[in-house]
Amino acid sequence: MMPFEGLSRRQFSGIAGSLALGISARSAKSGQADSSKPARPTNRRLASSFPSTFLWGTATSAYQIEGAVKDDERGQSIWDHHAHTPGTILDHSNADHACDHYHRYKEDVQLMKAMGATAYRFSVAWPRIFPEGVGSPNPKGLDFYNRLLDELLANGIEPFATLYHWDLPQSLQDRLGGWASRDTAKAFADYAGYVTAQLSDRVKHIFTINECSRLVHLGYGTGSDAPGLRLPQQELNQVRHNVALGHGLAVQAVRAHGRVGTMVGPAENMVTCVPAIETPANVRAAEIATRELNAGYLTVMLEGQYTDAFLASAGNNAPKSTAEDVNIISSPIDFVGLNVYTPDHYVVAADNEPGFTLAPFPASFPHMEPTWLRIGPEAMYWAPRQLAEVWGVKSIYITENGTSATDEPAIDGRVYDVDRIMYLRNYLMHLQRATSEGVPVQGYFPWSLMDNFEWSDGLEKRYGLYHVDFKTQRRTPKLSASFYREVIARNAVA
Ligand code: BG6
Question: Is 287 one of the catalytic residues?
Fold first, then answer.
């Protein structure tokens, strides 16, 4: 049986590290009660505000919104191929047109502006720049991003670019086996260097790879994402290593080709470990768990070594790696982007090795529309705090946070997505706790600016602050867009 069979497509995040570690949920041993009293806010405005330099953005990715998949000599990506393979996408849709952002980017920049957003995280489509993955760059593809950047800056919106949000050129999949080959990591670095040289006069923040663990586990483990493969454990571990290597090589390429002031880091969906009860023992246990359960990604990126437990658990299936590889993987970064959706584990301290217990989730645990998206707003506090505490990260951006919702228009045609507002409000309250305690979070990018092509869920899963009618391409603000505008406005005057 494949290691991921029987799991929903998102459960990988909670077990990504634990599979490699052989750690399973054990019986809970409760921590001690905290006797200290919570502090009472004395100044309401202070208690609800963010730092004055805080950036308020929104986020999207190329394949999910651009459409125009054949325009201007764009090459085919693994997602074009995957989405056109029968049986892969729930509603049988694809992203050939998606939000047609390629032609409507000016209108979309105005959607951001209408909310008062000051930043925007988008991704560059590798197959637009190098249609075959390597070789001669395609100036027409690059020009789209030149136009987009100019439009953003003219509207006072700071661009944050992601280099890889999963749309690998199909040619690299066909010729090299995609991320199963180290040569893909090298090709990624060449592409990263080229894009950086061309765009870093206007983009100062560059993310290398979006969510390494999802592209590895869903792309090569369960096969629900492109390229739709189900590799055995050793090969899967090698893919994971090559992806981490690609991140490190890209960091070096950005440094080598970026203008002065260009900053670079990953955008990760860290396995978030929340202390079940906030006691010193549980907090420490959650930190140990954070380090171990992120061993294949953030831990090796930030420490330059695979943990002993990770290697022991992988055994003969451990990836082939050299000291030079891990040095590259841990090339110094300027910030970490965190995609925070849900708590992956609630942790209690334990006397046995490794010093923590992962509490099993009761079947009754509440979730948002997607069953994997358990409601745990405190994840938004603990994830960045642990980055800062465990690894001393000094600059953090929340690069995604949001939920899909049913988003049925009401009789008056408006979308009253009060469930999304409830979700965002509560996560933001915990983010505010983090910043008020000095956790260095510098910006927030909710997912997503607008409804888009949600990977294997197709066009029916809606995460946007703006509703998109995919037949007419009409964008309509949901109530959550008004909520977000209010959040930004309040903090602008705080
Ligand atoms: C994140 C991705 O994992 O989750 C986004 O970076 C994605 O691209 C979002 O759209 C929602 O995920 P899903 O699986 O519900 O489409």
Answer: no
CA gap 29, 40 in Å, rounded = 30
Alpha helices in 53-165 (DSSP H): 62-65, 78-83, 101-115, 126-129, 139-154
Instruction: Indicate which residue's Cα is closest to atom 13 of ligand 1.
Output: 454
Structure tokens at 436: 């008020």
Report cis status (omega within 30 of 0) of the bond before 440: no
339 lines ligand 1 (CB under 6 A): yes
Q: How many other CB atoms are found less than 10 A from the CB of residue 441?
A: 27
CA of 428 to the centre of ligand 1 (A): 19
Scanning the structure block, which residue is given the tokens 């995280």? 121
Per-residue pLDDT of 246-286, as tens digits, reads: 999 999 999 999 999 999 999 999 999 999 999 999 999 99
| pLDDT at 492 (0 to 100) | 83
Burial of 293 (0-12, 13-18, 19+ CB in 10 A): buried
Tens digits of residue pLDDT in 7-33: 454 554 443 433 333 333 332 223 333
**pLDDT of 473 above 50:** yes
Distance separating alpha carbons of residues 477 and 133, to the nearest angstrom: 37
Place of tokens 């990591």: 185
Distance, CA of 158 to CA of 55 (rounded, Å): 9
Query: What's the CA angle centered on 329, arms 325 and 335, to 5 degrees?
Result: 165
pLDDT in tens, 150-192: 999 999 999 999 999 999 999 999 999 999 999 999 999 999 9
What average pLDDT does this structure show over 80-94? 98
What value does the mean pLDDT of the chain take? 92
Asked whether 138 and 70 are in contact (CB, 8 A), the reply is: no
404-418: b (≥16 Cβ within 10 Å) or e: bbebeeeeeeebebe
Share of the chain above pLDDT 70, in %: 90
Query: Could you confirm whether 151 is annotated as catalytic?
Result: no
Nearest to 268 by CA among 369, 361, 382, 398: 398
Please give the Cα distance from 213 to 199 (Å, whole number).
27
State the catalytic residue, choosing from 158, 211, 378, 454. 211
What's the pLDDT band for 68 if we cut at 50, 70, 90?
very high
